[in-house]
UniProtKB/TrEMBL annotation:
Family: Belongs to the zinc-containing alcohol dehydrogenase family. Quinone oxidoreductase subfamily.
Major localisation: mitochondrion
UniProt superkingdom: Eukaryota
Cellular localization per UniProt: Mitochondrion
Protein name per UniProt: Reticulon-4-interacting protein 1, mitochondrial isoform X1
Domain Enoyl reductase (ER): 52-337
Gene3D superfamilies per record: Medium-chain alcohol dehydrogenases, catalytic domain, NAD(P)-binding Rossmann-like Domain
Record gene name: RTN4IP1
Entry-linked PANTHER family: ALCOHOL DEHYDROGENASE RELATED (PTHR11695), RETICULON-4-INTERACTING PROTEIN 1, MITOCHONDRIAL (PTHR11695:SF294)
Length: 399
């Protein structure tokens, strides 16, 4: 796919909305504008105007349609989007210091300039327009992507993404199913493959422990690990045990029915641990790794963004570096590897994931699971979105 990406020469075609887009380009991107503007320059979106609880979520019909600013960008018409824990946290202001620095490295804007902010990282939709350097996609292609958290999100009718962050949607998934996957799948991929070093060639028979196995990242990770022939032990609550078994977990441990450490002592040590829970798990989980055999513990729950929120950019980065460095060193001397992993927005990794999905390797349970997770966040953690669920699931242009 990477080869194809670089070889295929596909030029962008301007859409009929091009004229109004050029008008819209005079407006700052991601802004809400007056209702007197022609309808073709505005779009519906869920936005926040300040950080807080669910009450800050607001539905508007008047967000500026985003425009292409760089030649490698693509405009996607959103057919389906979804909500992840990061959106819930960002709604409350989590990571604002670092994300604002990334949005505005030169500090040109004043405080609060990030609003109105559109949340939502996942998108499945159709390419509307491509920048001049975009070679791999053309208008009309069905694509999926996960948008990095410092960019305007996907809970809107259109979203602009970098061409390198986009991939052709798996043919076997509908848009709604596809939109449940990119963010968690890319996070799991980053932790397992890029940081953990596991792949389809070196995983057979490896013993893998997944903490927080019933969540978005965990359920995807189980399926990838099983597709690569690993032996998977999943830690989750009792009510999710049937789900994770269906996804392929070999052993299931209920973290609510007793001490997880005690339950794990009866099992053989592990080659790889993926920690989606964090906190106190770090103090005991590494004891269950094989020693001096290259076994690795990867956690997705890191204080990276929190440190910068608390201490500012420079001190936060310093603190983060010292923390991860000292922990990695300490565990290295004890014969195991300690790593942090982060979500990576990558069309290339999504190409690999789409291939696995279309091969049915993460079996159809993934699709079932995606739909199960979707109402979970939507219903319990992002209640107001339910008031206009059709707009959340599928953004329709009001006639
Ligand atoms: N570093 C990064 O770039 C990223 C980090 N993350 C982080 O990774 C973590 C997982 O993300 P995601 O899967 O999307 O989140 P979810 O909320 O979907 O999943 C978390 C799961 O953990 C389970 N859980 C909670 N406490 C425990 C426990 N003590 N032992 C075992 N399981 C437990 C929950 O199950 P139940 O509700 O049944 O108790 C839930 O299903 C989150 O903390 C998230 O913030 C995610 C994406 C990117």
């Amino acid at each position: 796919m990477g080869f194809l990406r670089s070889c295929m020469l596909r030029r962008s075609a301007r859409t009929a909305a091009g004229f109004w887009r050029s008008q819209a380009a005079r407006q700052p991107p991601g802004r809400e504008i007056s209702t007197t503007c022609p309808r073709s320059t505005v779009m519906p979106a869920w936005v926040i105007d300040k950080y807080g609880k669910n009450e800050v979520l607001r539905f508007t019909q008047n967000m500026m349609i985003p425009v292409i600013h760089y030649p490698n960008e693509v405009i996607i018409k959103v057919h389906a989007a979804s909500v992840n824990p990061i959106d819930v946290n960002m709604r409350s202001g989590y990571g604002a210091t670092a994300l604002n620095m990334k949005r505005d490295p030169l500090h040109i804007k004043t405080k609060g300039e990030e609003f109105p902010l559109t949340l939502g990282r996942d998108v499945s939709g159709v390419v509307m327009e491509c920048g001049l350097d975009v070679r791999y996609f053309k208008p009309g292609d069905e694509v999926w992507a996960a948008v990095p958290p410092w960019k305007q999100g996907t809970l809107s009718e259109f979203v602009v993404v970098n061409g390198n962050e986009v991939s052709l949607k798996p043919k076997s998934l509908t848009h709604t199913q596809a939109a449940s996957l990119p963010y968690v799948a890319l996070t799991a991929w980053s932790a397992i493959n890029k940081v953990g070093g596991l792949n389809d060639k070196n995983c057979t028979g490896k013993r893998v422990l997944i903490l927080g196995a019933s969540g978005g990242v965990g359920t995807f990770a189980i399926q990838v690990m099983k597709a690569w022939d690993a032996h998977v032990t999943a830690v989750c609550s009792q009510d999710a045990s049937e789900l994770v078994r269906k996804l392929g977990a070999d052993d299931v441990i209920d973290y609510k029915s007793g001490n997880v450490e005690e339950q794990l002592k009866s099992l053989k040590p592990f080659d790889f641990i993926l920690d989606n829970v964090g906190g106190s798990t770090e103090t005991w989980a590494l004891n269950f790794l094989k020693k001096w055999s290259g076994a690795t513990y990867v956690t997705l729950v890191t204080p990276f963004l929190l440190n910068m929120d608390r201490l500012g950019i420079a001190d936060g980065m310093l603190q983060t570096g010292v923390t991860v460095g000292s922990k990695a060193l300490k565990h290295f001397w004890q014969g195991v590897h300690y790593r942090w992993a982060f979500f990576m927005a990558s069309g290339l990794y999504l190409d690999d994931i789409a291939k696995l999905v279309d091969e049915g390797k993460p079996r159809n349970y993934m699709i079932e699971n995606g739909l199960l997770l979707f109402p979970k966040f939507c219903g319990f953690r992002f209640g107001p979105l339910l008031k206009k669920p059709f707009l959340f699931l599928k953004f329709q242009r009001p006639s």
